[in-house]
């Protein structure tokens, strides 16, 4: 599939800021089944951009702005060619050892309820791949997708107890359960082309990947109950949301801030015809 993505973020500050620093994990990379055709990061003010690769292998752009500044707009856009590989992730940079992805974090710490749920799912299967697919399916049933505003910093135990959440919540619970069962798992941020025709979305998408002996890394999207296909664009990974968040940063100047995000994901050919 040929996808075009446009990701706009707009910040406004109640008083001028003296300095702004943003860490952007918004640039996808090419690997088997995903080819980045074109990608740009644009800023509507005088800014310095520095690019590097972080410890997880994510492409990172550091953004530096000297004030005074009371608002800033970021536009990230590009085109990506994708293939349906049944969730299998191959050809990616893997600088870290597998045991790292068994490490729980504050957002992916399993409680008694998640542990009982995970063991119950695993008890019906002997094959690791079948266990993980079942885990994805059962979490999709157990946690209702809530399209409202979510808190990406919410802990997995709270999401599981509430029984509803956004895609980031589903990914955290999946990682918590998979790691408890002994399967390395990681959080993934990216984009999803929606088949319901909703081109404009309020945020990026999130899912998880787990490592299966003999197969490698495989993606699982419990928010939708499937493995990623050619409608998905993979951008960044980490142990949880904090490691893969599209935007993080700091500012000097005090006051309050507001942030508006709009993500548009469409098939490139259709976008040109329109």
Structure description:
This protein is of the alpha+beta class. It folds into 2 domains: 2-81 and 246-273, Immunoglobulin-like, CATH 2.60.40; 84-243, Roll (C8orf32 fold). The protein is 21% helix and 43% strand. It contains 6 helices and 14 strands. Helix 1 (112-123) packs across helix 2 (128-142), helix 1 packs across helix 4 and helix 2 packs antiparallel against helix 4. The protein is globular and about 60 Å long.
How are the secondary structure elements laid out?
Blueprint: E1 2-27, E2 34-43, E3 48-53, E4 59-82, E5 88-89, H1 112-123, H2 128-142, E6 144-145, H3 156-162, E7 164-165, H4 167-180, E8 185-192, E9 200-201, E10 205-212, E11 216-220, E12 232-238, H5 241-244, E13 247-252, E14 257-267, H6 268-273
Parallel strand pairs: 6-7
Antiparallel strand pairs: 1-4, 1-13, 1-14, 2-4, 3-4, 5-11, 8-10, 8-12, 9-14, 10-11
Helix pairs in contact: 1-2, 1-4, 2-4, 3-4
Helix share bin: 10-25%
- How many domains? 2
Mean pLDDT level: 93
What structural category arises from helix and sheet content? alpha+beta
**N- to C-terminal separation?**
18 Å
Order of helices and strands: EEEEEHHEHEHEEEEEHEEH
Count of alpha and pi helical runs: 6
Oligomer: single chain
CATH topology of the largest domain: C8orf32 fold
What about the largest sheet? 7 strands, antiparallel
Strand content: 35-45%
Overall CATH class of the largest domain: Alpha Beta
Outline type: globular
CATH architecture of the largest domain: Roll
The parts where pLDDT drops under 50 for at least 5 residues are none
Rg over CA atoms, rounded to whole Å, is: 19 Å
């Amino acid at each position: 599939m040929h996808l075009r993505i446009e990701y706009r973020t707009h910040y406004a500050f109640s008083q001028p800021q003296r300095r702004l620093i943003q860490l952007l994990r918004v640039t996808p990379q090419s690997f088997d089944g995903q080819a980045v055709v074109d990608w740009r990061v644009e800023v509507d003010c005088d800014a310095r951009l520095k690019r590097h690769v972080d410890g997880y292998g994510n492409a990172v752009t550091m953004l530096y702005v000297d004030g005074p500044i009371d608002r800033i707009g970021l536009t990230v856009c590009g085109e990506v060619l994708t293939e349906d590989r049944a969730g299998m992730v191959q050809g990616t940079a893997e600088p870290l050892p597998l045991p790292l992805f068994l490490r729980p974090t504050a957002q992916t710490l399993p409680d008694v309820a998640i542990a009982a749920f995970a063991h119950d799912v695993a008890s019906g299967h002997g094959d690791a791949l079948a266990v993980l697919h079942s885990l994805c399916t059962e979490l999709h049933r157990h946690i209702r997708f809530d399209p409202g505003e979510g808190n990406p910093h919410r802990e997995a135990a709270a999401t599981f107890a509430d029984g509803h959440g956004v895609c980031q919540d589903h990914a955290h619970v999946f990682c918590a359960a998979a790691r408890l069962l002994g399967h390395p798992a990681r959080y993934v941020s990216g984009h999803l082309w929606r088949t319901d025709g909703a081109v404009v979305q309020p945020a990026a998408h999130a899912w998880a990947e787990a490592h299966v002996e003999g197969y490698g890394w495989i993606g699982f999207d419990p928010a939708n109950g499937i493995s990623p296909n050619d409608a998905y664009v993979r951008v960044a990974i980490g142990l949880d949301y904090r490691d893969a968040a599209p935007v993080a940063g700091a500012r000097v100047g005090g006051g309050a801030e507001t942030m508006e995000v709009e993500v548009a994901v469409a098939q490139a050919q259709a976008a040109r015809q329109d």
